[in-house]
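Query structure, 236 tokens:
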């Protein structure tokens, strides 16, 4: 007869093993955060964008901080005139051909420049005999000196607004000359522009305009009044 009491311990052991096999194993606990590698997360990349150092402004930005704007003469609305007194009568004259280039930054006048070039042969008083005399050797001498030039390498604040600080060349004489400028923002053919006006007085004999009989001031006064009103358009 089989001895069941002897087999009972073995059966109990087998049952315990079976229960252990059916019990799911617990997942291992995650490592504490401090034990993980301290590798910083990468910053997201932004294509085509550069950052300027703190306290600086990038050139060419949309804010217009890229420097002064270059303006050139617009096709219309320009006048460069002068007035002189001959035998007690005031005579109006003008130059029909000239160019103007203004590099202008209203917040940085020291970086602004003005260049004017006038074709002396284009002088006109609406009287040809007088114009021929003005173009002649004793006055403007346009055959030898075809251009009149004004160059200012900076602008500056003045008591009445803005002045160009430059030099005027007439014939072969160059003299320092500060000229007042009234600058007004306008639109020219849909583009940003400027209207520049002003006037200044010069002495013709300072520039050699008056040789021979024309050096006397009893017939033609020494003082010449220059005036201008020009429209400039942005060229950048």
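Result returned for the query:
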């Amino acid at each position: 007869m089989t001895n069941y009491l002897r087999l009972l311990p073995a059966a109990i052991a087998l049952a315990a093993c079976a229960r252990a096999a059916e019990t799911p194993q617990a997942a291992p606990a995650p490592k504490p955060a401090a034990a993980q590698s301290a590798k910083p997360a990468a910053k997201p990349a932004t294509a085509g964008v550069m950052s300027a150092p703190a306290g600086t402004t990038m050139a060419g930005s949309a804010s217009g901080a890229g420097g002064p704007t270059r303006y050139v003469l617009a096709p219309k609305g320009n006048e460069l005139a002068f007035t002189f007194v001959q035998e007690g009568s005031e005579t109006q004259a003008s130059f029909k051909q000239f160019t103007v280039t203004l590099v202008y930054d209203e917040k940085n006048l020291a970086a602004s420049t003005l260049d004017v070039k006038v074709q002396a042969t284009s002088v006109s008083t609406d009287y040809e005999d007088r114009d021929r005399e003005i173009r002649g050797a004793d006055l403007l001498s346009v055959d030898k000196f075809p251009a009149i030039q004004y160059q200012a390498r900076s602008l500056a604040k003045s008591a009445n607004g803005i002045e160009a600080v430059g030099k005027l060349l007439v014939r072969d004489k160059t003299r320092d000359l500060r000229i007042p400028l009234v600058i007004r923002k306008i639109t020219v053919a849909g583009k940003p522009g400027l209207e520049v006006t002003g006037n200044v007085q010069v002495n013709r004999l300072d520039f050699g305009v008056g040789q021979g009989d024309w050096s006397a001031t009893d017939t033609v006064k020494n003082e010449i009044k220059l005036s201008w009103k020009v429209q400039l358009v942005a060229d950048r």
